[in-house]
Amino acid sequence: MNANEQERRLIQAVVAKTGPLVGKSIRDIKFRTRYNAVVLAVHREGVRVHARIGDVVLHPGDVLLLDAGPDFHREASHGGSGFALVSVLEDSAPPRLRLLVPVLFIAVAMIISYTAGLTELIVAALFAAGIMMCVGALSGTCRFHYSRAGSRAATASAR
């Protein structure tokens, strides 16, 4: 698996009724090498298969949870791949922990500048947000989603 850690995503893939995957074990297929993806779990008829992943023999309709690189979705979506459906799970990128220290430093500096009376809280917060955008910890986009109750909630994108 040679994809950059930040480019990897969680993917759900459904095994097609016919194709190169049906009736073969994950180990025999050499899944990791063939698809540049790791099988994390297998569900069959809504129940998790609790065998060793490499020993699982794939059946039509099995749902695979995969950790895969950015090219998997495009390559696996074509007809001969053995998958009937491939779907990328939203917001499944690994956390960007390398930004943790700079973000904590910026947040502490914001709090100190406010408590020391150097600036108003809104000014310190806007300045901190701008710096976080410059270092790549925040993006300028904001997505809205609706909860089941229908209330509108905003979530900041971490891209």
Q: How do you describe this structure in short?
A:
28% of the residues lie in helices and 25% in strands. It contains five helices and seven strands.
List the helices and strands and how they pair.
Layout: E1 9-15, H1 26-29, H2 31-35, E2 37-44, E3 47-48, E4 63-68, H3 72-76, E5 83-88, H4 100-115, H5 121-135, E6 142-146, E7 152-156
According to DSSP, the number of beta strands is 7
Instruction: Provide the spatial order of strands within the biggest beta sheet.
Output: 3-2-4-1-5
How much of the sequence is in beta strands?
A: 15-25%
- SSE succession: EHHEEEHEHHEE
- Mean pLDDT rating: 79
Explain how this protein is built.
The chain is α+β, with helices and mostly antiparallel strands. The protein has two domains: 5-88, Alpha-Beta Plaits; 97-156, no CATH class. The protein contains five helices and seven strands; from the N terminus they run βααβββαβααββ. The chain has helices at 26-29, 31-35, 72-76, 100-115, 121-135; strands at residues 9-15, 37-44, 47-48, 63-68, 83-88, 142-146, 152-156. The strands form two sheets. It has a five-stranded antiparallel sheet with strand order 3-2-4-1-5. Strands 6-7 form a two-stranded antiparallel ribbon. β6 and β7 form a beta hairpin. The radius of gyration is 22 Å and the shape is elongated.
